[in-house]
Amino acid sequence: MVAATGHADTTVGQGEIIEAVDRALTTHGRAILTGPAGAGKSEVVRAIAAAAERRETVLRLAPEAADQWIPEASAAALLASVPCAALERLAGPQRTAIAQLRRETDEPRAGRDHVALRLALVEVLRTLAARTPVLLVLDNAQWLDAESTDLLRFALRLTPPRVRVLVAECVQGGAPVAGPLCGPGTPEIRVPPLGAEEIAELLVRHGLPARLAGRIHQASGGNPRLALALGHSLAEAAGARDGGAHHADTLPVSGQAREVARRLLAEAP
Questions:
Q1: Is position 1 within any domain?
Q2: 258 is in which domain, residue-wise?
Q3: Distance from the Cα of residue 75 to its chain's centroid
Q4: How many distinct structural domains can be found in the chain?
């Protein structure tokens, strides 16, 4: 099924992309995943993170659109997910800085110690990496707030090789953040549109007729999120008149398909 947000829960046609990201992480320790909204970046990220959890510590961060306007929102979410054991060895000022970021204590009148916070994040990543390799997975990097972006950029410059980083980003016309976060020379893998045969497989996996694949592929441009939304809208329209979806039926841009199309246009550059 497609969630209310229109995300497709599938990795159809993404095997080569997953392998390319794995190679980049193995060779360079860092990788950037790009592509338009709805292309399937989040599904690739989830597949890689799920596989990595069997052998290393995985830290996940996936900000939403509203988070970009909340200072330090993403940094707070990241540090809230860190195991408590990684915080025990921090120096007093660093523990205090994290507690203030996570709103566990009042902020002093003199203001927060931002240097202590930066060093705290570096030390947390080093502590985790000393025990087991770490994979930091950052999805929706385009929605990082400026303060969190600055904090992560500083920390990732000082982390050991055992901290690998995967950043997925949908560039929306502003300055990309994945490159500055990961550093120069980081491999960038772009998620391409699905072909007609892959759209057919995607439809079948979701209980939709493959005979619609050609028209849905043309209408969606190979975007899996929009393709599924069109397929479901077409099936719902056919069901409402007690008949199966037919390849000659008009593709309905209504209901779920309209909402997904609206979201994709809003996220486009």
A1: no
A2: 196-267
A3: 15
A4: 2
